[in-house]
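User: I'm preparing a small set of examples for a lab meeting where we compare how different chains pack in three dimensions. I only have the primary sequence for this one, and I'd like the structure in token form so I can line it up with the others. Please keep the answer compact; I'll paste it straight into my notes.
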Amino acid sequence: MIKAVVIDDSPEIRAINKLLLSEYFIEVDIVGEADSVESGYELIRQVDPHLVLLDIELNGGTGFQLLQKLKPYNFKVIFITGHDQYALKAIKFHAIDYILKPVNATEFQEAVQSTLGLIEKELPTQEQNEHFLQNLDKKGGSGKIMLRTINALHLVNISDILYCKNDNSYTTFFLSTGEKIMVSKGIVFYNEILSESGFFRLHQSYLVNLQHIRKLDKADGGYVILGSGDEIPISLRRKKGLIKLLEAI
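Assistant: Understood. Below is the structure token output for the 249-residue chain.
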């Protein structure tokens, strides 16, 4: 059995999370709950869980402070958040699963199922955990993004990403090293978190790192040529926006 704990300062949210875990995941044994940094710390030390559902805002501090006290740790975390957009962006950058308040049953199942996959495959997440906690308070970010595939976690320099290509609910990252990394999230997700890092979605299927564009060709509807030689098509309605951004570089 997979041991899980629920740490949240709201009794109602704890009750909902426990109910959903019991209803949808019979392989998960809920071995405790807590509402503060201190009680959460004592609970985790006592029961040694595999999975922690962790609220960001707790009595006596934050979920991040709790993790700092516990590191290095081996359990997997699903964050529960309702308002902290900066924290949520950091969570997304590091490929850590999360649940938004108010809790939605479908989103809850997806987050838990994804994290259970990490536990079942015994994928190591120590580097992910450490990098996340080290860079949580850096407003400018660390210049790296964590990409999760079926079999691995990749810590990638954002500057090494040439472009991303969408394929239904999957996104493939093309790196300057020649490596390709496919992840099971759509391009809309990555457009949201990379747009502030110099990326532009110049086509519904492509998200491009502007720093790697070497030429813009306006023939045949338009496309850009990257330093790698790759040619990426430009959507007509996004061409003006792209030109404006390139002129500002």
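A couple of notes for your slides: The chain has two domains: 2-135, 159-248. The first helix runs from residue 11 to 24.

User: Perfect, thanks.
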